[in-house]
Amino acid sequence: MPTRANAAQPASSPDNTAAGGTGPAGPVNNGTAASRNSTGARFGTIDAAVHLGFAVLLVASLVRYVMRHSPADNVLVLALAAAASLLYFAVAVLASRGKPGAPWVFTLVVVWAVLVIAAPSFAWCSFALFFLCRSALSGAAAYAAAAATAAATAAGLFRLSSGTDLAMLLGPLAVGLMLTLIYDRIQHDAEEQRRLHAQVSLAQGQLAASERRAGTIAERERVSREIHDTVTQGLASSVLLLEAAGRAWPSPSAQAGLSQATALLRVNLSETRSLVHELASPGLDASALPEALLFSARQYVPDARLLVTGEQRPVPPDVRHALLRVVQSAASNIKLHAGDAAATVTLGYLQDAITLDVYDDGAGFDPAAAAPPSDAGGYGLRAMRQRVEQLGGIFSVESAPGEGTIVAAQVPAPEETHEPARPEESA
Question: Whose CB among 14, 92, 210, 387 lies 3.0–4.6 Å from 322's, allowing a Cys bridge?
Answer without folding.
Answer: 387
